[in-house]
Amino acid sequence: MTICQESIHLERVRQIQAIACDYSGVLFNDRSLALDAVNDTLKHFGFPRLNLPEFRNDFRLPYYSLFTQKGIDVESAKSVCIRKYRERYSKQRLSLGPFDDTRFAIKTLTDWGLKLAVASQTPRFQLDDQLIGYDLHWYFSSILACGDVSEEKPSPLPLLETARRIGVKPENMAYVGDMYEDIQCARNAGVTSVALARPEGSYHTRNRLMEGRPDLVIASLTELVVLLASSQMRAII
Fold first, then answer.
1. Are residues 101 and 185 in the same domain?
2. pLDDT per residue over 58-104, tens digit each?
3. Which of 74, 95, 116 lies at the terminal end of a domain, its last residue?
4. pTM beyond 0.90, yes or no
5. Tally of CB atoms within 10 A around 236
6. How many CB atoms are closer than 10 A to CB 52?
7. Quick check: is 236 in a domain?
8. Is there a cis peptide before residue 98, judged by omega within 30 degrees of 0?
């Protein structure tokens, strides 16, 4: 586990009352779906495919910005990207699933009395399908999907709305994300930023995440549980 030089103090960790998580790359492993959907969209517009390292370097939020940077107009990029994503999801949904540590982490955090939430740019249809399908939805006091608020990450609005919904102050909430924009969103909202750099499954590389100057960097949700257990003097179940 890494704590950045400009890190939060232990006292701030002790004040965490709620944990909000991104969905993609944090709770569920759907990076291959996003890569395939991006490549289908690039093919549609006549651009070459991206390999995984290129995808991890170029992919950003909002999703369509990768295509608008290539000169494609926003509306075309949005409409084609959404269509290709839905097409890919229908083909790959049965192969998607939570990471091995997801259920353990959210069960433990819930048993401790922490409030949990999802704040994601993932479409509502996918969140509902996967979270309900794996019987994980009831752990979360709020599930915020793409389009639920008027601004997307890195705007602070998704996390400010999440904090409002679950009834905590932003300074008492942490946000776990695997993209640079997740870290910026948390910093903009005054929320403790936790960068999740999984060896497999994270969208952005550890180096890219570090550019966002996160408060904490972890390699798994289990590490987050251990950190909170030690700082808040809780027993790990």
1. yes
2. 999 888 999 999 999 999 999 999 999 999 999 999 999 999 999 99
3. 95
4. yes
5. 12
6. 10
7. no
8. no
Helices and strands counted in the chain (H then E): 11, 7
Task: For residues 182 and 168, give the distance between their C-alpha atoms in angstroms, rounded to a whole number.
Answer: 19
d(C-alpha 221, C-alpha 234), whole Å: 16
Asked if residue 179 and residue 160 are part of one domain, the reply reads yes
Q: Which has the closest alpha carbon to 24: 69, 58, 56, 65?
A: 56
Domain membership flag for residue 41: yes
Q: Are residues 41 and 79 in the same domain?
A: yes
Does some domain include residue 237? no
Q: How does pLDDT run across 158-216, given as a tens digit for each residue?
A: 999 999 999 999 999 999 999 999 999 999 999 999 999 998 999 999 999 999 999 99
